[in-house]
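Issue: copy button drops trailing tokens. Both records pasted manually instead:
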Amino acid sequence: MNTPFSKAAAHQNQSISHLSDSDLLRRAREISLEERKAGIALLHHLCEIERRRLYAVKFASLHEYVVRELGYSDGAAHRRISAMRLMKVAPEVEKKLEQGTLTLSTASQIQHFLKTEKRITGVAAPIAEVRSILTQVEGKSSRQTEAYFAARSPQVAELMRERPRAIDGEKIQVNVVLSASLQEKLKRLRDRMAHQNSSPSLAEQIEQLADFALRKLEGNSARRERLSRPERQNVNPAERPVEDGLVNAALRQPTEQIEELEEQRHRSLEVKNAVQSKHRRVISVQNRREVWRRADARCEQKFSNGERCSRTHLLQVDHRIPVAWGGGNELSNLQLLCSTHNRVKSDRLPGEY
């Protein structure tokens, strides 16, 4: 059966089959240039979409928007977003991409190098250094660019190689360089866990560590919840630990000192109330835990299509009604949001999106 696509392809083949060799080669060059220009136009659009945070209406990140809405693969989305962010730092990147002396892959490598270097040093590279790197890698392949970065900064290049690479739908490959001390720790862990698995792979050891850490964290939260102190109103007033122990001290003091101690207690409460008023944003640990438990450690932002944000990274406990507008720290006014949707929310009134 001929589909509309197959018919269009057949028509396209017929339209170019009569071209001379020189015309066919010239037309291919023209289409290649048009494709690069269209790609650069997309980078500008992504830049503005990111600036306005328009992706947050339906997605947790710009990357998710490019993959799910625009239909790019994870790798293609990563390359375009990285090139766009490099272009914001060094506008001359646009001309190099259009001329073909810099590819999306190379631009993505440069951006990844700069980001990793900043993570190590804590300082962004000056624009002069960025331009020097652009000059050095111009016209180079991805492999040559990788070799250049390895020679320029072995420490940064080592961390860059840790970037995950998809193998199939369920597995990824990560290159990790282990220090001697970490290898020794893993050997000790293997020996201690030998009764469960006498010869675990590195992946199995990492999974053991992750399981142990999660059990520890989640177990501690549940244990603290069980061992939390009873409500103050259920405690005998004579046994209740009052601020600075003043009342209990008063019960043990002669009658003539009670008034003075009670006055000190009132002054202490006034100071405490003033501090609480100043720091109304402070949320109790118990309420924070409950918000995380209730949200199942996932952003609670819901989109217009009924879907919920999938992000579990950089989550923040947020006030539905801001404190500045009278919102309190009660559970009904607290929610868990990712950093993206928390920032978007701060730009809008309650109920707007």
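Record 2 (pasted manually too):
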Amino acid sequence: MRPTVHYLMETEAHVYALAVSASVLLAFYPFLTVMMAICRDVLHWRAAEQSIYLAINDLFAGEAGNFIVRNIAPWSIPKLSFTAMFLLFFTANGVFEPMEVALNRAWGVTTNRTYLKNQLISLGLILACGALALFSLMLTALGERYIPNSIGFLGHIGTFLQRLLFKLAAVPVSMLALFLVYWLLPNRKIEPARVVPVAIVVGLVLEGLKYVNLLFANAIHDKLDREYKVFQHSVTILLWSFAGALVVLAGAHWTARRDTIDPLS
């Protein structure tokens, strides 16, 4: 693990992670609005909308999660439009552009794809990851139909079961999305079996980061509120995206370092 830790301390890794996290910040709200509009206007499924709120509160603990939920209420989201879809694709493509360069660097690939080829690959990954996210929400919504709404102690049990159901649906889906990124995004052929273990491990580590966020959410909120005021929630998304990007890059570096196949030119 020492070379990977050393890699994470290099300026290059931080530049890549910051570029990815900035693109995540730009794509975050368009992604939520498109998901909400699809659940409301296409599926007409109230339970799927509630699953989005559950996903947000699972990802962002405390005031940050509450703020985001308040600002994606169904009545504040316009109907699904080509403008919203274009903004999502345009901003989300920016996530995979620096990510490809970083993964190519990790695998020893010296030639990046052209901009057009990168955008095509990114578009495919956006559609695939979006479909996986929607599939996870649908599984959660289907399962919640069998969890009765109660108050008191039974209500706490119901809430726990809802979160457990979401984890059972979301964690494997996030691992599959990571697998697709590790496998398809680098500009070289990679055996799928090479990246399956790291996709699982990185998925578990990212899940663990949520609990770290849960432990320190109040302290982070107070600190960011003093320093950034109205921008605190944007900074929260940026910081946690930066940390997540470093974990993803660390997984790629650890896997590629152990690879014995010569990179393709």
